[in-house]
Amino acid sequence: MAHTKAQGSVKGNRDSRPKRRGVKLYGGQKAIPGNIIVRQVGSKFIAGDGVETGKDYTLFAVKAGVVNFKTHRGKQVIEVIHG
């Protein structure tokens, strides 16, 4: 008689793949149009000048320049300034 559970020992041992979210370009780094600046869930960071928001809240540059982080009314704003 078998004393181990058949196929039951790995139930619930699965994990999702990493989503690779976070800041991709930091303040002071150069960006060109199309560069992803932040991958996020929800709007932790919001888009400022030279930055647009994708449908999954990804922030990306729409003009060339230098990435700048600032706070405006309690929200973190990311902008691309000409530099």
Q: In words, what does this structure look like?
A:
The chain contains no helices and 8 strands. By secondary structure, the protein is mostly beta strands. It has a domain at 25-81: Beta Barrel (OB fold (Dihydrolipoamide Acetyltransferase, E2P)). The strands form 2 sheets. Strands 1-3-6-5 form a 4-stranded antiparallel sheet, with no helix packed on it. The protein has a 4-stranded mixed sheet with strand order 2-7-8-4, with no helix packed on it. The chain is elongated, with a radius of gyration of 21 Å.
Describe what is shown at a glance.
The protein is mainly beta and 83 residues long. 0% of the residues lie in helices and 39% in strands. The model has no long low-confidence stretch (mean pLDDT 91).
Output the keywords.
single chain; 83 residues; mainly beta; OB fold (Dihydrolipoamide Acetyltransferase, E2P); four-stranded antiparallel β-sheet; four-stranded mixed β-sheet; 0% helix; elongated
List the helices and strands and how they pair.
Elements: E1 22-23, E2 30-31, E3 36-39, E4 45-47, E5 51-53, E6 59-61, E7 65-72, E8 75-81
Parallel strand pairs: 4-8
Antiparallel strand pairs: 1-3, 2-7, 3-6, 5-6, 7-8
Ends apart, CA distance between termini: 75 Å
Largest sheet data: 4 strands, antiparallel
SS class: mainly beta
Strand content: 35-45%
